[in-house]
Amino acid sequence: MLPDDICPRPSDTPPLPTQPHAAPIQLTSVWQCADPDQADRMLSGATPGYVYQRDGHPNADQLTAKCAELHGAEQAVVTSSGMSALSAAVLSQLKTGDHVVVSGHLYGKTLSLFGGECSRLGIAATVVDTCDLSAVRAALTDRTRMIVVETIANPRLQVVDMAGLAEIASQHRITLLVDNTFATPYVCRPLELGAQLVMESLTKMMNGHSDVTLGLLCGRGLDWTRVRQVVSTWGLAAAPFDCWLASRGLATMALRMERACGTALRVAEFLSSRAEVERVDYPGLSAHPQHALAARQFGDRFGSIVTFHLPGGRDAATRFMHAARRIPFCPSLGELSTTLSHPESTSHRGLTAEQRAALGITGGTIRLSVGIESDGFVLDAIAEGLARAWERA
Ligand SMILES: *Cc1c(COP(=O)(O)O)cnc(C)c1O
User: Fold this and answer.
1) Is 161 in the pocket of ligand 1 (CB under 6 A)?
2) Model's pTM, two decimal places?
3) Alpha-carbon distance 188 to 236, whole Å?
4) For residues 339-359, b (16+ Cβ closer than 10 Å) or e, as one string?
């Protein structure tokens, strides 16, 4: 054979007498079909099987099946990012002339999606405080098709009444879309509380290893054909290697969340006891405005994110970051290690000072993403930050 002719052929991958125990990564962009009839049947969805990666592949299906099970979902799809999962929800469920009611506490890019991108498509959005069910009801019009909320919002960690919102949505025959990224299915399963659509940024705790960007959209009682069409046609599909990594991360999600939620509660209690700290936001603290609701919805797990506010604005936050040497400043969340973020300079920098003030975000606001280290390590690292920051002041 000429060296020029060594390209992959079917004989390179004969069937094996034993099966690999760890899932193989199947990077192929295309699958060999037996004949036109087989290709036709598979592309029409009449028989299962793979033809072209953008329309589906084994690593995506393995990850999707696990995520669907975790959420008790009837339908699910994984996409190239959390934002593409939200885009799939918009493009499959909404059309020009529709109206959506969205939480004022949404992730910044989600607000841009509904406030900016959607308005270019002729889809109007009204922003309300979705913790207030009467405000949600008052914002509904006869064109409203969707309510969009986050289970636990960023960065103040407000908790929405999922069953209450689901009841409003069902009365008006509209879709409740929940971004469950801060909670994960370990803390909350919104579909079981009445939501029709749930998204997760798998980039965060679900994968948990800060090495992929992926999203999940799952649903209950919806026609999923449109979602599949949108993911393939708008090119939102997830890549095999990313799906493989996320399947591996997902296998330890419950263990990681169990550890991180436990430590986060101790961290929140510790910060509340410190004179240097002005205020602490954590749904597990009895001082949190929706603590009773959170306990009813979540049981005794309140997530791995803790937000606290230092008096003294950005200078105080900067001093703390320099002093807390073992906690890296990473403007994301849900990693193995404990990290911190600064909403004023990162996630909420697009807002005006007045808008940030209305959300209760100051220069001294710090959002901690608690990792899986021992609680002693995390508490010491924070105590070191507080002590050294003020000793320098
Ligand atoms: C990160 C995040 C997103 C967006 O997910 P990507 O995977 O970064 O696209 C959406 N919502 C929340 C709450 C997030 O934290």
Assistant:
1) no
2) 0.96
3) 26
4) bbbbbbeebbeebeeeebeeb
Q: Is 259 a catalytic site residue?
A: no
Single out the residue of 386, 331, 314, 352 nearest to residue 155, CA to CA: 331
User: What are 321-340's pLDDT values in tens digits?
Assistant: 999 999 999 999 999 999 99
380 phi and psi, to 5 degrees?
-60, -40
The answer to whether 100 and 175 are in contact (CB under 8 A) is no
- What tokens appear for 71 in the block? 């959420």
CA pair distance 162, 178, nearest whole angstrom: 9
Task: Please name the amino acid found at residue 356.
Answer: R
Q: Which pLDDT belongs to residue 44?
A: 86
The two tokens of residue 368 are 């901690």
82 Cα to the center of ligand 1, angstroms: 5
CA distance 129 to 146: 15
To test the ligand 1 pocket, which listed residue (199, 201, 212) has its Cβ within 8 A of the most ligand atoms?
A: 201
Nearest C-alpha to atom 2 of ligand 1 is from which residue? Answer: 201
pLDDT (tens digit, 9 = 90+) per residue, 145-183? Answer: 999 999 999 999 999 999 999 999 999 999 999 999 999
Sign of the Cα pseudo-torsion (308, 301, 219, 158, in order): negative
Q: Identify the sign of the CA torsion 320, 324, 328, 334.
A: negative
CB atoms within 10 A of CB 46: 9
